Amino acid sequence: MIENKNEASKNLEKALQALEQAKQRVANEKKKQNEKKRKAENHHKYIMGGIIVKYFPDCYHYDEGELNRILSVALQTRECQQIISKIKAESQETTPDYYHA
After folding, report:
1. What pTM, to 2 d.p., does this model score?
2. pLDDT for 1-33, tens place per residue?
3. b/e string for 21-41 if b means 16 or more Cβ within 10 A?
4. How confident is the model at residue 97 (pLDDT cuts 50, 70, 90)?
5. Alpha-carbon span 74 to 52, nearest angstrom
6. Could you give the 3-state DSSP secondary structure of residue 11?
7. What is the DSSP string of 31-84?
8. Phi and psi torsions of 96, nearest 5°
9. Where is this region: Disordered (predicted)?
10. How far apart are CA 20 and CA 93, in angstroms?
11. Cα torsion through 81, 84, 90, 94, rounded to 10
């Protein structure tokens, strides 16, 4: 009978160890996914900044608040709104429906 208790105790210990290892693997995978997401977001921000500089090289002369004001007005112009609508329409034509949910 004592052997069965020892055996059960060992099995429980092994199961708990496997559980902890699985939890660690899940945590590592989440960390990896978050790192990928962060890198992609940072890359996107870098590219967007480059686009601003490309089309508005004087942007360095303005602080963040001033640049926010300039861009918010520029993005509300009729021409800008038209091209945004056109790009969205083109995107919907080429993107499968399950991406628009």
Report:
1. 0.61
2. 556 778 888 899 999 999 999 999 999 999 999
3. eeeeeeeeeeeeeeeeeeeee
4. low
5. 12
6. helix
7. HHHHHHHHHHHHHHHHHHHHHHHHH-GGGGGS-HHHHHHHHHHHHTSHHHHHHH
8. -60, 150
9. 22-41
10. 47
11. -150
